[in-house]
Amino acid sequence: MQRKISRREFLGLLAAAGLSPLAASLARLWNRLQTAPSRAAPEGFSPQSPHRWVMVIDQGGCIGCNYCTYACLAVNDVRPDAPWNKLLIQAELAGGRIYLPQPCMHCEHPPCVSVCPVGATYRRPDGLVVMDYDRCIGCRYCMVACPYETRHFNWEQWDGPNPYVPDFGAPEVPRRSRGVVEKCTFCLQRIERGLALGLTPGVDREATPACVTECPVQARFFGDLNDPQSTVSRLLAERPSLRLREDLGTSPRVYYLTSLAGVPPTTPPERRP
Amino acid sequence: MWLRRHPYLLPWTALLLALLAVGGIAAFQVYSRGLVVTGMSDEVPWGLWIAVDLSAIGLGAGAFLLSAAIHLLRLRDFQPLGRVAVLVGLLGYTSAVLALLLDLGRPERFWHPLVFWNPHSVLWEITMCVVLYTGVLVLEFAPVVGQASWMKSRLPRLARLLQRGHALAPALALAGLFLSLLHQSSLGATYGVIPSRPLWGNPGTAVLFLAHAVAAGPALTLLATLGAERVLGREVVPLPTLLRLGRFVGIALAAYLYMRLWDILAMSYTHLPGRIEGLEMLTGGLLTGPFWIGEILLGGLIPAILLLIPRLRERPGILALSSFLTVAGLVVARWDVNLSSMFIRAGYIPGQTVAPLPSYRPTWVEWTTTAAILAYALLSYTWSLHLLPLFSQEQAQESAKLARRAFEPSAER
């Protein structure tokens, strides 16, 4: 004869059945919270990367020609109305302008990464803050969180021709689809390919971000801050520099060398698309 | 039968269906062309739909509060409000999901947060809580469907299965309390954890959002009940019970306003870049009207006063009006929080305090879809009133007896 289960026993069994996966989930959650919000490193990357990629921009050298922006638009196949690299004007002085070219800051403590509900934007061990376009759900919280406005949403599908191809380069990455957020990657594709070929990002053109290689006045530098001999390490040791909104605690990886020798000339070179 | 007894039902349903149809056309625009059909931009990435999300979830808070009051605190006189509160909550949460499915750039990936976890994200936590709590609400509401006479006669086995959920009520109330206390406050933390949005970048937003939901959620339950009495033409919940809930709303609203006052006052002394600019926008700039008139005066002080003075509260018209004002006040407040956060952004060019003011104007697509979501909630509520046993007579009688005992203790003895 079957024993009847009392309501109390039934509820107890139900609670036990419900609690065991909950406990497992809580353990999983706890493990996740212990680790920094970065993803497992892709094949070939050690969790502790030997590299610390930074960009150094010399505001004293920048003439405002916008070639960095154009090169980025071509190489990363970016919509011209939402450039990954912006050229801002910091100040208009009597003798000319002080420019502020601005890519993604690739923050050490990126607000965008901690807010993303699906971990679609993540910080790689080498410090690059990148996007997984296949995972992004398009909630745009990262755009709300980014203090530097370097993120752009694909409000519609962009099928038109890229006016900066081929004058400023050829696309090296696929175009992003409608409905996802995109941003500057420090030309991740060049760095990865360059390292695989034994090149040095920041030294060899093929392994260096397009905005750096296309700058006609060498106002942008890229390299490894872990290498004391790199150009970026030496520049930051020799010259005063600043980072944008350090008070927010984001610790950006883009450094600006302030304009020392007064105001640069403002006549941009001729080539324009 | 009741279709003839309620002549309003046909034109009202037709109107709501028309709104749903227009919203459907607009939604088709969104899905075929992308979010370019909205007024949002890279500078203002969150607009009207996010305000709908925040409001709908906040106004659904009556469900967890009344479930907790009935099943955990054992306040049995609130029992006749339990079912309608759960239904209002369910409609609120499903409305939020509808708005979210429009707002996401890739709506077909809505399930990603459930699989790809980022526990550092408050939005992930909100998503998990909303999904789980919507499940709780469905389970809480299942017995009501199971008790419907047409269910019992046509699908007796399913009806019995659904009714079995009664036994789970205390456990569900506990789960609902736990989940709601988490996500109702983290909705505010969504803004509070963002340092680049200086106006709301403080931990107070989380507490404020929870406190406002605790006031306005039951206010919507109250409003829905008063509406039901009007439509059905009979008393469904004893007036003393409604008045008691109204008093609770008044106290909660006053508590919220007190915290809001200190939030605003404290804000004006921090001198954090952007905070003063944001405060000026609310108190003497772009959002002056919504803030002073909508949020503070009509949506806060007036309903709080009306509900806290017994002589005023006891007039049914006043009770309905102040519930409505409380509900509207929450909607305006959430619209203000979102919009001012989008507008007041920390500047990042050296020497720039705040970024240049962007502009945002919702397009017809956003307005009509919002109207359609509201129509969905109203339509579901209207038909539930007529098709489901939302109000039980026994519970109402017991509640009335309890209220009489509370008011006339000598008569019992």
Verbal overview:
- The complex is a heterodimer of chains A (273) and B (413).
- Chain A is of the alpha+beta class and 273 residues long.
- Chain A has a single domain (53-257), classed as Alpha-Beta Plaits (2-Layer Sandwich), CATH 3.30.70.20.
- Chain A has seven helices and ten strands.
- Chain B has one domain: Formate dehydrogenase/DMSO reductase domain (Formate dehydrogenase/DMSO reductase fold, Up-down Bundle).
- Chain B contains 19 helices and no strands.
- Chain B starts with a helix and ends with a helix.
- The interface between A and B is large, with 54 and 47 residues.
Task: Describe this structure in a few short sentences.
The complex is a heterodimer of chains A (273) and B (413). With 273 residues, chain A is α+β, with helices and mostly antiparallel strands.
Top-tier CATH class of chain A: Alpha Beta
Low-confidence stretches of chain B: none
Count of the separate structural domains of chain A = 1
CATH architecture of chain B: Up-down Bundle
Q: Which strand order does the major sheet of chain A show?
A: 8-1-10-9
CATH A-level architecture of chain A: 2-Layer Sandwich
Task: Summarize model confidence as the mean pLDDT of chain B.
Answer: 90
- By CATH's scheme, which homologous superfamily of chain B applies? Formate dehydrogenase/DMSO reductase domain
Q: Classify the beta-strand content of chain A into a percent band.
A: 15-25%
Termini Cα gap of chain B? 45 Å
Query: What overall form of chain A do the CA principal axes indicate?
Result: elongated
Count of domain modules of chain B: 1
Q: Strand portion of chain B, in percent?
A: under 5%
Quaternary organization: heterodimer
The major sheet of chain B is characterized as: none
Describe the sheet with the most strands of chain A.
Answer: 4 strands, mixed
- Global mean pLDDT of chain A: 85
Regions with little confidence, pLDDT below 50 for 5+ residues of chain A: 40-46
Per CATH, the class of chain B reads Mainly Alpha
